[in-house]
Design goal:
- The protein is mainly alpha-helical.
- It contains 8 helices and 2 strands; from the N terminus they run H-H-H-E-E-H-H-H-H-H.
- The chain has helices spanning about 15-30, 35-55, 60-85, 100-125, 130-140, 145-175, 180-210, 230-250; strands at about 90-95, 95-100.
- The protein has a two-stranded antiparallel ribbon with strand order 1-2.
- Strand 1 and strand 2 form a beta hairpin.
- The chain is flat.
- The termini are far apart.
């Protein structure tokens, strides 16, 4: 069972995966230090445009993947909006205390969650795991035994899903699926899947050791990963996103709030 997420490629698929990972991590860290809600709104909007226009997937898939993250935006924002501290009270009832400060802080927190989500989606939809680990081995000198172990583990996930579906059909045919409590159903699924996974992992480990995957010296690679001009484009894209978000957020603010942190 293979998910063809990389059939329609864009220029972002050709960026060096480890370099792309570094850029995304730095962008993640930068987002943590943005306290201006106008800048955060601009950056989230730009990341959404990059996600929709540059990841190369169908719009149906991209919109479908957005659904749980908009729910994440709501759940991240609502708790801060309803229970956060603030001086300008808009609504108060029992434990609920909605203020101007808590509202903007909640929206900012939700936008930050969306920004993280868009960064993760952009990276996941434009990076093949195999290329990522090959790049980590060649550029970041990750030991091959760890890289190949991670790759083998990722390849096992679809097999585990297939086994789960097969086991479920077998239990339905035998009439076991409809009987027993939830704990008993978990027992019926967990023991066979766990035992099969342990056996398969042991066989893979023995095969990898026999083929000298733990050897570090004089190793050759089937995929040769390097840097290209598109890595420079990626850097320029990140700098442009940050500069545009800062300029518009400071010069053309949507709301008169420049810092959502509460100092009362």
């Amino acid at each position: 069972m293979q998910l063809e997420l990389y059939k329609n490629k864009s220029w972002m698929h050709d960026i060096n995966p480890s370099f792309k990972l570094s850029g995304m991590v730095l962008l993640f860290i930068g987002v943590l230090f943005i306290h201006n809600i106008n800048v955060m709104l601009n950056l989230t909007g730009v990341l959404l445009l990059v996600y929709l226009l540059m990841t190369g997937q169908s719009y149906k898939l991209k919109l479908l993947l957005l659904v749980p993250f908009f729910f994440l935006f709501f759940t991240s924002a609502i708790s801060m909006v309803l229970f956060g501290r603030g001086d300008t009270i808009w609504f108060e009832f029992g434990l609920i205390n909605v203020s101007e400060e808590s509202f903007y802080r909640g929206v900012h927190l939700g936008l930050r969650s969306l920004a993280f989500a868009f960064c993760g989606l952009i990276f996941a939809l434009t990076t093949q795991p195999v290329y990522l680990f090959y790049s980590l081995m060649q550029q970041w000198k990750l030991p091959p035994k760890f890289a190949y172990s991670f790759m083998a583990g990722i390849r096992l996930l679809p097999l585990i899903l297939e086994e789960f579906l097969t086991l479920r059909k077998a239990l339905i045919v035998r009439g076991v699926e409809q009987k027993g409590s939830l704990l008993k159903k978990v027992y019926f699924y967990s023991i066979p899947l766990l035992s099969q996974s342990i056996r398969r992992a042991h066989r893979i480990a023995v095969a990898m050791e026999a083929k000298r995957f733990s050897n570090h010296d004089n190793r050759t690679y089937y995929y040769q990963m390097g840097y290209s001009r598109k890595d420079l484009w990626f850097v320029l894209l990140i700098l442009l996103m940050i500069a545009l978000s800062l300029y518009l957020g400071i010069r053309l603010p949507y709301v008169p709030v420049t810092d959502v942190r509460y100092n009362g």
